[in-house]
Known about the structure:
The chain is mainly α. The chain contains seven helices and no strands.
Amino acid sequence: MGLTDELERLQSLRERGALTEAEYERAKARVLGEDAATSGNAGGTAAPGAGQGGAFASERAFFHQLARSRSDRWLGGVCGGLGRHTDLPSWAWRLIFSLVTLYFGSGLLFYVLLWIFLPAEG
């Protein structure tokens, strides 16, 4: 669902009375990536520069934190790094890459690409 779809959905919920004005403003600020402090100022206008990066700012920050592990590694440390930054442990990532390699053949390609493009920890 895109940003426009989300905003239209919020607008329709507000028009039907399912959301109060305050709830609508908070939800809109969350979708646009603004923090609660900027959405609550006078007139409901955002401060200059607020919300830069949009709704995907947290995802971008997550990808910038990814790194290959130096301690939990079998080959390149990719699975150890993914295990450190996600809810799945590193052994589960190793299993996923192995199964995708066996059944689809592309798991090895993904692993090598991550090995090349993810920086090492530290």
